[in-house]
Amino acid sequence: MSKIVIDATGMACPLPIILLSQRISEMAVGERLTLLADDPAAIFDVPAWCRMTGNSLESNDNSTFEIRRTS
Which partner from 1, 8, 35, 69 sits 20 to 30 angstroms from 29, CA to CA? Predict the structure, then answer.
């Protein structure tokens, strides 16, 4: 399994979430990805998206989000 990285650096809301949603739908349950997003809204949007979709936010370090597909 290769490491999946979505680089949404410099993109404004809602593009990071749109890219995340598109890519994670192609992944198998249990796979993880890294989202790089420096939009100020991402700190709120990514955890909310994970809660709403049933996916797991494994870590959140400034503009780096580790997400595991759980649904």
Answer: 8
Give the DSSP letter string of 28-71: PTT-EEEEE---TTHHHHHHHHHHHHT-EEEEEETTEEEEE---
Question: Residue 50 is part of which domain span?
Answer: 4-68
Amino acid in the structure at residue 1: M
Query: What's the predicted TM-score (pTM) here?
Result: 0.94
| Domain total in the chain | 1
Q: What is the distance between the alpha carbons of residues 71 and 68, in angstroms, rounded to a whole number?
A: 9
Please list the pLDDT of the chain residue by residue as tens digits (71 residues). Answer: 568 999 999 999 999 999 999 999 999 999 999 999 999 999 999 999 999 999 999 999 989 999 999 98
From 4, 13, 27, 57, active-site residue = 13
Determine whether 13 is an active site residue: yes
